[in-house]
Specification:
about 100 residues, three-stranded mixed beta sheet, 4 helices
Amino acid sequence: MQRQLVLTQRLQEAFAPHHLEVINESANHRGPADAETHFKCVIVSDSFIGKRSVQRHQSVYALVTDEMQKGLHALALHTYTPAEWAEVEQAPASPACQHKK
């Protein structure tokens, strides 16, 4: 199964998000574009209410430990409560990779 689909399914099941984006950014980094090694995840969920950013990120990483061991290299996590998302409505753009050939 494609890693992007695996990530999407796990995040949907764990967080019942109001908004979810799982974006494959592997083409912006060194290696083949289809490597599925770098992802940006935007997650808006009630599950994040009352949690600090580090707690939110830990809960996501707990879901993907096995994928990290299989070659998932990086996750850019943007985690919001519905109220926070209503204020920003857009995750920040990803920076350019310094190691892109």
